[in-house]
Design brief:
alpha+beta; four-stranded antiparallel β-sheet; five-stranded antiparallel β-sheet
Amino acid sequence: MVDGDDRPVITEPELTARVDAAFDVTGQDLARWPDPHPDRSPADEEYSRLSDPAKWRIVGARADAWLMALAETGVAVIHREATVRWRVPPPTVVSCTVRAVPLAEGALPLVVARSRLGSLDDAGVTLAAGDPAVCVVWIPDCGCDACDSGSQDVLDELDRYVFSVVSGTFRRLWSGDREITVVSSDARRAQWGVSGKLSRTEVDSVLVDPTGWHEVSGASWMPAG
């Protein structure tokens, strides 16, 4: 279905269903696993152990499912082996990059990059948005056995960040070493430098009036019908 401007109209439930269907294909040979620490704290030795980096490829399979769904619904054009301009290079070691360029005016391009985890060049996923691209998140953020909370957690995390870009709720604001990332109206992260934080009141004030701050944000990829 398209609107009068020949842009695709698709609802969130329809897009999610497309992603899930695509994931049945892209993730068919990859195993899911439960939280290995449902009722205990991680053992000390787990913090320095990355016993199975290959299992994290399931995150890349979910990212591939998103790319398939975005292309099939006609809301974006997918560019494989893309060259990406970074505002600041990501902290991960990137091996290849794909750009999803939305058709909606004012929407942010999405970068899906494979990144190194342990000895594998492609087990992690680094997401970015905009052009030049700002790093949104890298998943898993560690990958060690102690930080493993099961496959569903990382799949949900990927969905949350990708959908924030696609829905137009993603905002990245920065001023000096202060940074604010908004994923949705009820999920925001603020950082001051490396370890300090902005107060919630300060964050709310900046989001209402970002004067003096740089910002990367965009429109929804899914025009309302």
